[in-house]
Design a protein that fits this description.
Blueprint (H helix, E strand, L loop, with lengths): L1 E6 L4 H9 L17 E3 L5 E6 L4 H6 L5 E2 L3 H7 L36 E5 L2 H10 L4 E5 L4
Parallel strand pairs: 1-3, 1-4, 5-6
Antiparallel strand pairs: 2-3
């Protein structure tokens, strides 16, 4: 039996639709009254785990799932030891550098060296500013 890690949130519906197209039905996760975090496909061929998006590659890396669906942003951030097999062409995202509207800064390269940048994507932000040769302090921030 194959085990699939499915992401909660914005990628879930498209992920379920993708698996339905190959004959696997995990649509029970879309029922708001269903509180299960693990379901079996009615054919008995596969089971799916419903996990946080950032945990999908961890489940695959440590063998709790055979495959999973996660955004490229998550794979770049986590840098797990998993294969990135295919771009599924859904779930677009954009990482942006934002400042107050009243700020005089209009481009990332205009920012002063050694400033603070808050980000949920710490590794991606660090890599981005490193490539700009702009030293900044990255502050991990996971809330709003």
């Amino acid at each position: 039996m194959i085990t699939v890690a499915l992401p909660k949130g914005g990628l879930l519906k498209d992920s379920i639709r993708l698996f339905q197209s190959v004959g696997l039905d995990f649509s029970a996760f879309l029922d708001s009254s269903n509180r299960q975090l693990q379901i079996y496909d009615p054919t008995g061929t596969a089971k799916a785990l419903l996990v946080r998006t950032h945990d999908v590659p961890v489940y695959v890396e440590y063998g709790q799932a055979d495959l999973g669906i996660a955004g490229y942003d998550v794979l770049r951030e986590k840098k797990p030891k998993v294969a990135n097999l295919i771009d599924l062409q859904f779930g677009k995202c954009r990482l942006s550098v934002a400042v107050k509207e009243s700020s005089s800064y209009r481009r990332s390269v205009d920012l002063p060296p050694h400033g603070r940048v808050a980000s949920k994507f710490v590794n991606c932000a660090r890599e981005y500013f490193h490539n700009l040769n702009l030293p900044v302090e990255i502050v991990p921030l996971y809330g709003s």
